[in-house]
Amino acid sequence: MxxxxxxxxxxxxxxxxxxxxxxxxxxxxxxxxxxxxxAGGAEIDQYAIPWPPxxxxxxxxxxxxAALLEAETADGAQxxxxxxxxxxxxxxxxxxxxxxxxxxxxxxxxEALVISHEHFDHFWGIGSTLRHCPHxxxxxxxxxxxxxxxxxKEQGHTxxxxxxxxxxxxxxxxxxxxxxxxxxxxxxxxxENVLYARIRDRGMAMMTGCGHGGxxxxxxxxxRTFQGGDRIHALYGGLHIAPLEDWDESRDRxxxxxGQYGIAKLACNHCTGRRAVEKMxxxxxxVLRGSARNGSQNELFxxxxxxxxxx
Length: 311
Known about the structure:
Elements: E1 13-22, H1 29-39, E2 66-73, E3 78-83, H2 89-99, H3 101-106, E4 112-114, H4 120-123, H5 127-130, E5 137-141, H6 146-154, E6 161-164, E7 170-173, E8 176-185, E9 189-199, E10 203-208, H7 215-225, E11 232-237, H8 249-258, E12 265-268, H9 274-282, E13 307-310
Parallel strand pairs: 3-4, 4-5, 5-6, 10-11, 11-12
Antiparallel strand pairs: 1-2, 1-13, 2-3, 7-8, 8-9, 9-10
């Protein structure tokens, strides 16, 4: 039986603010998956598909996922971390300019870029970050393909590149840790980084890009790994429950199980699935609604330009 003494103390944050820069991975799901089918199916190498920035295939459908984390540690120090960097450079340049991310990068006010996983809509827009801050420290999950590593170099990265091995939490600064969950998913992508923060007097917050490892598994990991992990205050990001809007009894059970964690704030992004969020609302889960602006199309999701305050 696990004891309190064996759990990892990551420290605490006084506050955490999450700015959703872009949750809109793409605008038309059918078009994306038609492109994947036409290229050879789910196990095709994603770099073989001529989407931006490697080609112009349906470039108007390409957007991306990215968020800015602003944290205050127990000693009052301020930290900013970029979580993912989107897909289409044209879209990400636009969103970075609209939210002032470009200037923060130029001024060296963002200390790190954490890539959740190698999927195109979370990673291929890295040029939009590196053009403003090529020396930024970059964290990636173990499992990146050689083509992805080469792409990082080609985009001009000159800073530290840190690879997170599976199931070995890395403290970014007191109160915020990265964990890489081993997984294999669509388009030969392996490994996903998840962020865990402990908020003073609130509990744990978990931030995902897509949550391919399974939202319940990721929450249970917090419970058995971190001090304070038995109290989940908030979730932010993609929960990958029904991204294609398919539904069955197992997904009903998953939503019902979320209600057993005592979550106070649930901020979903695109790959959670519209139907999944509707089910959450039906069961009384505390879903934060979005403003459906700046390209976001549905108020069910915390959208582009929306802010989640955790303190």
